[in-house]
Amino acid sequence: MDKIIGFIGSGNMGSAMVGGIVKADLTKPENVFVASRNKNTLAHLKEEYKINAVKDNKSLAGCVDILILAVKPNGYKEVIEEIKNDCKENCVIVSIAAGISIEAIEEMFDKPIHLIRTMPNTPAFVGEAMSALCPNSLVTEKEIEEVKLIFNSFGRCEVVSESLIDAVIGVSGSSPAYVYMFIEALADAAVMGGMKREQAYQFVAQAVYGSAKMVLETGIHPGILKDNVCSPAGTTIEAVRELERQGFRSAIIEASKACMDKSKEMTKKGKGDGK
Known about the structure:
alpha/beta
């Protein structure tokens, strides 16, 4: 990619994205610019990835082709007000903030912009994010493909309608927390069975990772994969029966719905999300 990529903000997600881009050799490090109030993080990114550290947001906005706003949602209005008159013509603006709609960001810029609203998740830190991309009407197919390359450098991504963003947050943006709870609970059971906790986490985490990989790589329906593990009158079907009796599926569905409802509520109020 020969585009100049800029980040305003160097928090956990922004730093993970910078690392993904450089490690994947998506572009040369000198084509990546980062501006941040956190001087320590900025210095670390410059030292580790050899990217360009920029002192102020305005000068960065004026030199990049793709601008990723990696600040907290409550900082969007201030940052956009600062840079909106300095962005290059046809610069693609990328938002990673939950709770701020495409319409709200367009209103902050107060002019036509090429905007892609996105929702990555925290596995970006290990190069395994799942991200949603929601382009506005001005974004071209070529621009979408370029931004997809960025997000695929630290995981996977899909282009979806903004109407699905609340569902994305419920089942992808926030779901790592649900999975961590499942891992923790299953490890507790292993400890109860006599296994050391560190070893329990290894067994459980690898089982979850392998199961997810089976779904992604085989294309087999999860229900069939589950049935394949359950031998007649065996141990697994007994555990599945107890999970059903305890309302396992319903609890997951209702938790995800609560997350989606909260996301909708926050978007209506124009607030960001702390997940």
